[in-house]
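Margin note: ligand = NDP.
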Amino acid sequence: MAKVLCVLYPDPVTGYPPKYARNNVPDIKGYPNGQTVPSPEGPLGFKPGELVGCVSGELGLRKYLESHGHELVVTSDKDGADSTFDRHLPDADIVISQPFWPAYLTAERLAKAKKLKLALTAGIGSDHVDLKAAAKHGVTVAEVTFSNSISVAEHVVMMTLSLVRNYLPSHQYAANGGWNIADCVSRSYDVEGMHFGTIAAGRIGLAVLRRMKPFDVHLHYYDPHRLSPEIEKELNATYHETPMSLVKVCDVVNLQMPLYPSTEHMFDDKMFDLMKRGSYLINTARGKLCDRDAVVRALESGKLAGYAGDVWYPQPAPVDHPWRRMPYEGMTPHISGTSLSAQYRYASGTLEILQCFFDKRPIRSEYLIVDGGNLAGTGAGSYKLD
Ligand code: NDP
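Resulting structure:
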C-alpha cells in the first residue's frame, strides 16, 4: 500500500462543483508531433470537462487509488513549517503537485521524505522540484508532457494581442461606463508587420510560432537546437544564435524555456537594455526567468511597452507582489495550462503514470524528467542540473 500526497489549488470560493459553461470538451486524439494523448487503463474517475485540478476534484484519483488499497491525502496547505504537506511528507511514497499551486520540493524537504519514490507533476514544468536533490535521493520525477502545451500557446497569442492592442485598459473604460476612444487607442497598435520572437521553440514555443504566423508577422526564434529546415521554411522564421541577438530586433518577445539554475534571471537590466524601446514581453514559462524588479523598472522607463504572463515567484504570489500593480501589465494567476480542456488530459496522464508505476511497467520516456539518479527522457533534453 502506498501513501499518495496530492497538493492541489483550493476550490472555487463560489463552491464545488461549479456550474459549467459547456457540457463537454473536445476529445483530442494526438499532438502535433505525433505523440498520443494519455491512455490510462479502465475508467476515469471524472467526466472530461469537470474541474479536477482543485482539492475537491482530487484529479479524479480517489476511486482508483482506494480500490487498489492505497491512501490518498489531498491538501492545498503547502507552505510553512507546520503545513499539512510537511506533516504528511515524511511517510509519503508519491507526491503529486501542479505547477499552478506548486508544492516546492526543496533539497531540505527531499531529505526528510525518506520514503518518496515518485514526484509527479500533473501538468508540465518540474522546476518546483530540486531536480539535483531528487536525482541524489533516487526519486523519479515525471510530468505529463504535451498535456497543456497548446493551452499555453493559445494563452500566449491572447496575451500578445491583448497587450499590443491595449485590450485590458480599453475594456476597463467600457466597464466603467466610459467612451474614451482617444485614451484607449493612444497605446493601441496592430501586430501585423511586427517582429515576433520566441526564446525556446520546444512544444509550446513552436506551437506559438505556428499560431502567430497567420497574423503576418516576421517570426524569429532562439533555441539551443535549431528547428529542421522544413519547419524553418514553413514558418519563414529567422534563427538567432543567442537570445541577445533576438531581443535586439523583436517587437514582441515570448519566453518559453524551462527554468533551471542557468536560465534563472535571464531577463535582467542588462537584457532589457538590449531590447527595442516599446517592446512587449510575454512570459508563460516561469516567473524566475525574469528579475522581478528589473521588469518593473523596464515598464516604468518605457523600455517595455507591456508585460503579460501567468507565472510568478513564489506561487501563490503575495498580495504586495509588484507585478500585480506595475504599469502596462496583463498578468493573470497561473491559469494558462489548467483550462478544463487541459485538466482532462493531465489528470488522465497522471493516472497513466500512476498505473505504470504501481504495475512496474515503464513510464513513457517523454514523461520522464529524472530517473535512475539522473536526468532522463524529456528531462535530459530540456533541463540541466546546474
Ligand atoms: P519543451 O521541453 O518541449 O521545450 C523546452 C524548450 O526549451 C526546448 O526546445 C529546449 O531546447 C529549450 N531550452 C532549454 N534550455 C534553453 C535555454 N537556455 N534557452 C532557450 N531555450 C532553451 O517544453 P514545453 O514547450 O512543453 O514547455 C516549456 C516550459 O513552459 C516548461 O518548462 C514550463 O516551465 C512552461 N510551462 C508553463 C505552463 C503554464 O501553465 N504557464 C504549462 C506548461 C509548461 P532543446 O530541447 O532543443 O535543448
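Residues 123-125, 148-149, 152, 199-205, 222-225, 256-259, 263, 284-286, 310-311, 334, 336-337, 378, 381-382 surround NDP (CB under 6 Å).
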